[in-house]
Amino acid sequence: xxxxxxxxxxxxxxxxxxxxxxxxxxxxxxxxxxxxxxxxxxxxxxxxxxxxxxxxxxxxxxxxxxxxxxxxxxxxxxxxxxxxxxxxxxxxxxxxxxxxxxxxxxxxxxxxxxxxxxxxxxxxxxxxxxxxxxxxxxxxxxxxxxxxxxxxxxxxxxxxxxxxxxxxxxxxxxxxxxxxxxxxxxxxxxxxxxxxxxxxxxxxxxxxxxxxxxxxxxxxxxxxxxxxxxxxxxxxxxxxxxxxxxxxxxxxxxxxxxxxxxxxxxxxxxxxxxxxxxxxxxxxxxxxxxxxxxxxxxxxxxxxxxxxxxxxxxxxxxxxxxxxxxxxxxxxxxxxxxxxxxxxxxxxxxxxxxxxxxxxxxxxxxxxxxxxxxxxxxxxxxxxxxxxxxxxxxxxxxxxxxxxxxxxxxxx
Length: 412
Fold this sequence. Notes:
Elements: E1 37-38, E2 47-49, E3 53-54, E4 59-62, E5 67-69, E6 75-77, E7 82-85, E8 99-103, E9 109-116, E10 120-124, E11 132-140, E12 153-157, E13 164-167, E14 170-172, E15 176-180, E16 186-188, E17 191-193, E18 197-201, E19 207-209, E20 212-224, E21 231-233, E22 236-247, E23 254-256, E24 259-260, E25 264-270, E26 273-275, E27 278-280, E28 286-292, E29 295-297, E30 300-302, E31 309-311, E32 323-325, E33 328-330, E34 337-339, E35 346-349, E36 352-354, E37 361-363, E38 368-371, E39 374-376, E40 383-385, E41 390-393, E42 396-398, E43 406-407
Parallel strand pairs: 1-2, 2-5, 3-6, 4-7, 5-8, 6-9, 7-9, 8-10, 9-11, 10-12, 11-13, 11-14, 12-15, 13-16, 14-17, 15-18, 16-19, 17-20, 18-20, 19-21, 20-22, 21-23, 22-24, 22-25, 23-26, 24-27, 25-28, 26-29, 27-30, 28-31, 29-32, 30-33, 31-34, 32-35, 33-36, 34-37, 35-38, 36-39, 37-40, 38-41, ...
């Protein structure tokens, strides 16, 4: 192919836009459209890719699907170039779903470029035989051309056995950064900035690992509906509303070793594990609401504005069969750990609650077993438990503001 010195243009981000600077790496993906094939020659908007292809220039003002990949095992190298949509759908009240790159094959690799100004940047479906790969991608809404009110999905993963790897990519300023409805996908080593929901997951057996998620206006990672047996680990989450939220029958997923400056919520789920995370300076650190069979263990919750770990707010649907073990909760504005009334069959085991603004551990449900917890230097009681809780022994409370130290259980 011919070479060119033209590269992706630089953009100056106006005040008020929450976008990252454009990196020059990208994508590819596919759908179905009756247009001419693009092989090793010059590529134009609307072409179908059927063999390894390297762009020699930017594609600008593409009026519909920009590129469609239909052959298995193809590599599309954007070579630092950018694919732009024409943005017409953003200026119209009609619902138009143009795509930047459509992947309609398996074992496809898209790399080294950028995709902007499409309602869907990349879409990829089933790839059971070999993973499709998006590596070195910047995809999202152009910070100058696209107002943040527009519906933009940067990467849409569909179908069972979708098997997509997103690696070392940048997802910016989209309503949903990655919408993942399939299974066996991985999102790793990537950056998400300024999205509404960085990752929306309602598939299963997906892995979300080692990503930086910044300034999501709603959620960093949302596991919802049929989200089952997913792994969310070692991500850093900064800014936004809720860092990680498991909800609406999401089940059997593990959230571990994440570092979040905003909270983790587990609501209306079954048998999920929230383990080994660090949550700092959030409003409430970790919240469980009707979280059946949840394990919340080995987390560090530091300097929450209100309470550190809460099982069900008063009058909310209850959580049941939840185990809180080995958590460390320090310097919350209110209580360290709260078990609300009517929460059923909870175990508190070997937790530490220290220097919190009210009680270290506040238990308002008699259906709680309290064993080997430590609560020191809290402003009121170390442990405040209602009559009828099960005292498993070995609890300790010292140097708390209330001279009783503990009620409802015996403390050393």
